[in-house]
What does this fold into?
Amino acid sequence: MSDNSMLDRAQRFLGALRHCQVLGMQVHNVDSSGLTLRLPYSTQIIGNPETGVIHGGAITTLMDTTCGISTVCVLPEFEICPTLDLRIDYMRPAEPHKDVFGFAECYRVTENVIFTRGYAYQDDPREPIAHVVGAFMRMGKGAQGDSGLKQNIDGAGA
It folds into this structure.
């Protein structure tokens, strides 16, 4: 799949997730090495009002979404791939008033499971806020969920 096709698919998938729209998440970059999403800093995601530090749940949402959308970028056709397992190791708190970026790659695709890994960062990917590994179950092409979702993600509904 071309980088433009992956970008289009990732943007359409992200646009179908209401909670990500509310959080203002955006596709920052996608190519054959992986997917990067951007979570803008906002008062809605502050976990500690005294310090302005972002709530860990917002970072978890970013990383689960980044890993999940990375799966649709590696598959030739859209499949629903729910999260089976997600582990996040927090290295340090995110700095207040700065956007957070989440990067994920699919490092193994099997018939039944897709394995992902990645990290969250702010200014420098070499200084991560958190590391993540995840496993996503392949439901197969026949499991479409919302009948319009596949067409929307693949661009047929556009």
